[in-house]
Amino acid sequence: MPSKTYTQEFKRDAVTLYENSPGASIQTIATDLGINRATLANWVKKYGTGARTNSLMAEKSSSTLVNEAEQIRKLEREVRKLREERDILRKAVMPRV
User: Fold this and answer.
1) CATH number for position 2
2) What is the model's pLDDT at position 42?
3) Which of 61, 62, 68, 95 is most buried by a 10 A CB count?
């Protein structure tokens, strides 16, 4: 299986996301992005600033973070449902050969 290639921009954005997410681990970020944990760790070593910054998320209360996480899960479910509906409609409109 050929290895995936990622753009420099994607790599740097992934590192920035990790560094600006004080409560998240490398494993969590890597899983969210669909990449290997070791790959992200290598990118952090190569492109990282060496410090995880205290962003606005660090100042939010844990209940706010939980509410945001719940909202994200809800929106992800809605996106899945809408994609399924879209696919059904595409099939219905496609001419049959």
Assistant:
1) 1.10.10.60
2) 94
3) 68
Tokens of 27: 């494993």
Quote the domain boundaries for residue 6.
Answer: 1-55
- Quote the tokens at residue 60: 């939010």
Locate 76 and state its tokens: 């992800």
How many Cα neighbours within 13 Å face the side chain of 76? Answer: 7
SS (H, E, C) the chain: CCCCCCCHHHHHHHHHHHHCCCCCCHHHHHHHHCCCHHHHHHHHHHHCCCCCCCCHHHHCCHHHHHHHHHHHHHHHHHHHHHHHHHHHHHHHHCCCC
